[in-house]
Specification:
globular, 4-stranded antiparallel β-sheet, 4 strands
Length: about 475
């Protein structure tokens, strides 16, 4: 079950990867017309409307992206199956359809049915579509019906399945929606403290890849909070005494742009002298990714298991940072993650409040991370990279470079360590190379460390993950090409 949930978390990165485009488009629009939000400039309106076209349809993108991301063959027909599933549910659960099917006036239809265009429904339909697709895309029908065999059959079957799903949701969705809203309101009722609690658990769930489920409640329109969309739309008027638009995003900027890179510097300084060059190369790449893009996994996985007290402290610091920015109303938001690119684009967003103070807050957290990490590493003799028993046995000329040749060489080394016969299936998310293997215990830990990757994880006896970084897709493609699966 945990492995499957991790696959869902990985597949969610397919539609989430669209958000940077929306962020850039809307950010440019707000830069051009920061007061009229497009009303005073046709060019600004062009950019803002283009970005909102993506944001307003994130539920559909989730359905398509998950259906594709969870499919076994990664064929476009899987995405079509997800779209069909989404369209049928949206039509059958629309307020006017519910009114007609139940013979009640539309104004008496439960409010939940006006909220079916959301990421939760997108995730649900995407998962169901993927399961149907994986079970039908190889099915051969009798000769008379052969035209509808295989991938064509998937769209037909999902149409029938989603009628049943929509029928069930017709009864269950008001209850589900009510529970989600109650959960969101429970945290929302705590105001800034609730934001801090969310920030803490956001980081704590990273190792198992379930932070995406938590994020969907606060960032998207699942429980009525919809913080990312509200922020990108500049919806300042939605702020209340307990909720400020962007409060579930702002506190991540000081952590990802300043805190984590400073923690990486502390780890580097505590590495053995003969390990600094090797450790520095890995940590530098992770720090740059964290600062500019907000992609933190390469850094976090470098110490979350070998020095778990540091990671727990990191989660606490994240919660504190989110609490401070929410309490002080130092607000910025993002379309992808809390890196410099999104921070720069946030300056002209009407919902941004005192966002320069996030740099001051970031400087404070940089010092906090550096000195606390240094103190904990020394006090508890933690085996951070390049220290104690965590020595990188890597030749100086073996570091991973960019380019197709180096990706092929790195993939060959990974296959050699994991074992070609041990590999059942290969996949990847934003930063992780994910293997389904026959036996993860047979893969030598020392050999995995020697690869020079940012880290690795063995979630189960048949699952192995290697943290590569933003160029993981190219390494994954090479592994698939060389292994043949």
């Amino acid at each position: 079950m945990l492995t499957y949930l991790q696959k869902i978390g990985k597949a969610l990165m397919v539609p989430v990867a669209v958000l940077p485009a929306a962020s850039i488009l809307m950010g440019l629009g707000y830069w051009i017309d920061p007061t009229g939000w497009g009303a005073n400039s046709q060019v600004a309106a062009f950019f803002i409307f283009s970005g909102s076209a993506l944001i307003d349809n994130m539920g559909m993108l989730f359905a398509i992206g998950l259906a594709f991301g969870l499919s076994k063959d990664k064929h476009g027909s899987a995405a079509l199956t997800g779209l069909v599933a989404w369209l049928i549910v949206q039509k059958l659960l629309a307020p006017d359809s519910i009114a007609m099917l139940t013979a009640v006036p539309v104004e008496e239809v439960p409010a939940a049915f006006a909220k079916v265009n959301n990421q939760f429904i997108g995730i649900l339909t995407g998962v169901i579509a993927a399961e149907v697709y994986n079970r039908t895309y190889k099915v051969e029908l009798p000769a008379a019906l052969s035209f509808f065999s295989g991938r064509r059959l998937s769209s037909i079957v999902i149409s029938l399945v989603m009628i049943v799903v929509a029928f069930i949701l017709g009864f269950a969705w008001p209850t589900i929606y009510g529970a989600l809203v109650s959960f969101g309101e429970f945290i929302l009722g705590f105001g800034s403290v609730g934001a801090g609690i969310y920030g803490f658990f956001n980081r704590l769930l990273i190792p198992v890849g379930l932070h995406h489920a938590l994020n969907s409640v606060f960032w998207f329109d699942v429980a009525g909070i919809n913080d990312i969309n509200n922020y990108l739309a500049g919806a300042v008027e939605l702020s209340t005494s307990s909720y400020t638009v962007g409060m579930y995003q702002a506190g991540f900027f000081p952590i990802m742009m300043f805190g984590l890179p400073a923690g990486a510097l502390a780890i580097y300084h505590q590495a053995n002298a003969d390990q600094k060059k090797r450790v520095g190369a890995i940590l530098m790449a992770g720090a740059v990714a964290s600062f500019f893009t907000g992609v933190t996994e390469p850094l976090e996985f470098s110490f979350m298991f070998v020095a778990w007290p540091l990671y727990f402290l990191h989660a606490i610091f994240t919660g504190i940072s989110v609490f401070i920015s929410a309490q002080m109303q130092w607000i910025a938001g993002f379309g992808f993650s809390a890196g410099f690119v999104d921070y720069f684009l946030s300056f002209k967003n009407p919902a941004a409040i005192n966002n320069l103070m996030l740099i001051v807050q970031g400087a404070g957290f940089a010092a906090l991370y550096y000195f606390s990490f240094t103190a904990m590493i020394k006090a508890f003799n933690l085996n951070t990279p390049g220290r104690g028993t965590n020595i990188l046995e890597l030749d100086d000329d073996a570091a991973v470079e960019t380019g197709s040749t180096s990706h092929a060489q790195f993939a060959s080394k990974i296959i050699e360590v994991v074992g070609s016969d041990n590999i059942v299936e290969t996949d990847n998310c934003t930063t992780r190379l994910r293997f389904t293997v026959k036996d993860s215990a047979s893969v030598d830990d020392a050999a995995l460390k020697s690869l020079g990757a940012a880290g690795y994880l063995k979630p189960s006896s048949t699952s192995l993950q290697i943290i590569i970084g933003p160029d993981v897709q190219f390494v994954s493609d090479e592994v698939k090409r060389q292994v043949g699966r």
